[in-house]
Specification:
Order of helices and strands of chain A: EHEHHEHEHHEHEHEEEEHEEHEHEHH
Largest interface: A-B, 31 and 31 residues
Oligomer: heterodimer
Helix content of chain A: 40-55%
Largest sheet of chain A: 7 strands, mixed
Number of strands of chain A: 14
Radius of gyration of chain A: 19 Å
Structural class of chain B: alpha/beta
Shape of chain B: globular
Number of helices of chain B: 10
CATH architecture of the largest domain in chain A: 3-Layer(aba) Sandwich
Number of domains of chain B: 1
Strand content of chain B: 5-15%
Strand content of chain A: 15-25%
CATH superfamily of chain B: Thiamin diphosphate (ThDP)-binding fold, Pyr/PP domains
Helix content of chain B: 25-40%
Shape of chain A: globular
CATH class of the largest domain in chain A: Alpha Beta
CATH class of chain B: Alpha Beta
Bound molecules: thiamine diphosphate
CATH topology of chain B: Rossmann fold
Distance between the termini of chain B: 23 Å
Distance between the termini of chain A: 46 Å
CATH superfamily of the largest domain in chain A: Thiamin diphosphate (ThDP)-binding fold, Pyr/PP domains
Chain lengths: 318, 275
């Protein structure tokens, strides 16, 4: 499978879109060489602001720029944006401004930098903010389409979660992102795996193995976490009766929790959530960390089989 | 502990620098630049000025050290191991799975007081420890190493205000003034015209030194220890990547290990000079 960098795509796409969109401005906080906003910065130095290691200043300035008619993109590592939660809440979301937070290095695919940098809580934190939309692209085609959408027709506030590592390609140039709409990458009638980010390609591999075991798997890429694609979730619950969620995020307040909310209010079925089990990350190579935290392809297969074979809806709690 | 003279300290600084290079080369990642710039400061603190005992890392009266710029973990880990807090063999596990040596400074490592890695927070943690020292009437001191990019964080200046308010003369901050941050030179990313004056205007004692001159580091710390009322900021002028010719003053080596076997060998040989 060919892999491509989502952040590289982000920087390049911004630099392309900057030509036609003169009101596009980009901010960073001394990580532009890593988030790749530096590509835009080199091309449009007048519309690029490196605010230094001052994330709170970056976010409040983003609000001021948006209030003055600019379309704003602000980037840093996901973990460091979180220290501005209250600035995002007060100055950006409450004012409902066109600010797009595109963060990189989220999740455990940060690898060697370790636990301090591997944020697995951000989707939950951001989803709780009124007006904020939350998007997690699964490959670089989707990342490009998301950026195009945000610049051309979207309005902020948005939170877009990108990674350090390259992710396997799932789509092609025909793909186009729409908020609140998921995409089904594979159909099956026994169980549905709903994934987010790189876990979608893991889910596809797991589905192949499960097929050999006689289990037909539907795989859904839920890149729009907020608004979430309720219809697709209820349909999957109805048609496959069992759902597994997989995410490079805590099982609390992320994709699994959102799916649980939708099915328990509308169509309760067996659900298993796979992700970080209320724990911090660890230094190591990105891909070996998935096995370490029991989130690898084999783990998805195991959990899906368990979910498929489960007979009663309730755990035996006696 | 045996008393080290300046010749010994210089030798130890070079040992630490070599270990920094070995660690980031073996890990194929990590932050050499800001570890090398801080090596002489770390040496003086751990081998001369701080009241610490590797056999009693929990002694309530020990001096505390906080590496506020937590990406300089190779520098701190190397120093702690040479000082005897843990076996030097641990260093080869740096940034690898099944090792205690997390990529950024981690509290699970013997001798480490607090986990860091998100910039701007360590000085405030130091304020808390210094407040506790006063409350408990203990004589320990709290040393905090801060980066010159790091002081762009508002949190740093909030902590500077608090230390002044509570007259924390038991708090000694050291600025690793190497003039480079991640995206480039500090003067380009966020110019600060006169850092010593800025800090002094917040009510601190400020001492400016050459951060690679062991004698100057020693006298600055000695002077800080005499402060009756004020917290002290030692502004140490340093060179990022100090000791490795191709890393010196080169922003590329903020977060990149030697790029090849040749670079690695060159670094080790330059750091072995005079021995
Ligand atoms: C809050 C926060 N924002 C951004 C980063 C990413 N980062 C790591 S090191 C660094 C530059 C630090 O520069 P400086 O403080 O001067 O350290 P030194 O040059 O001594 O290594 C940045 C921006 C971070 N670790 N924490």
């Amino acid at each position: 499978m060919i892999s491509e960098s989502l952040r590289e795509t982000y920087g390049e796409e911004l630099a392309i879109l900057g030509e036609g969109h003169k009101n596009l401005v980009v901010l960073d906080a001394d990580l532009s060489s890593s988030t790749k906003t530096s590509i835009f910065g080199k091309k449009f130095p007048d519309r690029f602001f490196n605010m230094g290691i001052s994330e709170q200043s970056m976010v409040t300035a983003a609000a001021g720029l948006a209030l003055s008619g600019k379309k704003v993109f602000a980037s840093t590592f996901a973990v460091f944006l979180m220290r501005t939660y209250e600035q995002m809440r007060q100055s950006v979301c409450y004012n409902n401004l066109d600010v797009n937070f595109v963060v990189t290095h989220a999740g455990i695919t940060v690898g060697e930098d370790g636990a301090t940098h591997q944020i697995v809580e951000d989707v939950g934190i951001m989803s709780g903010l009124p007006n904020m939309k939350v998007i997690v692209p699964a490959d670089s085609y989707e990342a490009r389409s998301v950026i195009d959408y945000l610049v051309e027709s979207g309005t902020g506030p948005n939170y877009v979660r990108l990674s350090r590592e390259k992710f396997p390609l799932l789509y092609d140039d025909n793909y186009s992102f729409h908020p609140g709409v998921s995409s089904t990458l594979r159909d099956g009638s026994d169980i549905t795996i709903i994934g987010m980010g790189v876990m979608v390609s893991f889910a596809l591999k797991a589905a192949e193995i499960l097929k050999q075991k006689g289990i037909g798997v539907r795989v859904i890429n839920m890149s729009s976490i907020k608004p979430i694609d309720k219809k697709a979730i209820i349909k999957a619950a109805n048609e496959t009766g069992r759902i597994v969620t997989v995410e490079e995020h805590s099982i609390y307040n992320g994709l699994g929790s959102r799916v649980a909310e939708v099915i328990s209010e509308n169509h309760p079925v067996h659900l298993k959530r796979l992700g970080m089990m209320d724990t911090f990350g660890k230094s190591g190579k990105s891909w070996e960390l998935f096995d370490y935290f029991h989130m690898g392809v084999d783990d998805i297969v195991k959990v899906s089989e368990e979910c498929f074979r489960k007979e009663t809806y309730y755990e035996n709690i006696s | 502990m045996e008393a080290y003279d300046v010749v010994d300290l210089k030798r130890i600084s070079n040992v630490i620098r070599r270990k920094v290079i070995e660690m980031v080369y073996s890990a194929k990642s990590g932050h050499p630049g800001g570890s090398l710039s801080a090596a002489d400061i770390l040496t003086v603190l751990y081998f001369k000025e701080m009241n610490i005992d590797p056999l009693h890392p929990d002694d309530p009266d020990r001096d505390r050290f906080i590496m506020s710029k937590g990406h300089a973990s190779p520098g701190l880990y190397a120093t702690l191991s040479v000082r005897g807090f843990f076996p030097e063999s641990f260093l080869s596990g740096f940034r690898k799975l099944n090792s205690k040596l997390e990529g950024h400074v981690h509290r699970g490592v013997p001798g480490v007081e607090v986990s860091t890695g998100s910039l701007g927070q360590g000085l405030g943690v130091g304020v808390g420890m210094a407040l506790a020292g006063k409350l408990d009437q203990r004589s320990y001191r709290v040393f905090v190493l801060v980066g010159d990019g790091e002081i762009e964080e508002g949190n740093i200046w909030e902590s500077i205000m608090a230390a002044n308010k509570y007259h924390l003369n038991n708090l000694i901050a050291i600025l690793d003034r190497n003039r480079i941050q991640l995206d480039g030179f500090t003067r380009d990313i966020m110019p600060l015209n006169n850092i010593p004056d800025m800090i002094a205007s917040f009510g601190w004692n400020v001492i400016e030194i050459d951060g690679h001159d062991h004698n100057q580091i020693i006298s600055a710390i000695e002077e800080a220890k005499e402060s009756l009322e004020k917290p002290t900021f030692v502004v140490a002028n340093t060179v990022k990547g100090k000791g490795v010719s191709y890393m010196e003053n080169n922003p590329k080596y903020h977060g990149s290990p030697p790029a090849s076997e040749e670079e690695y060998r060159l670094a080790i040989s330059e750091l072995s000079g005079g021995e």
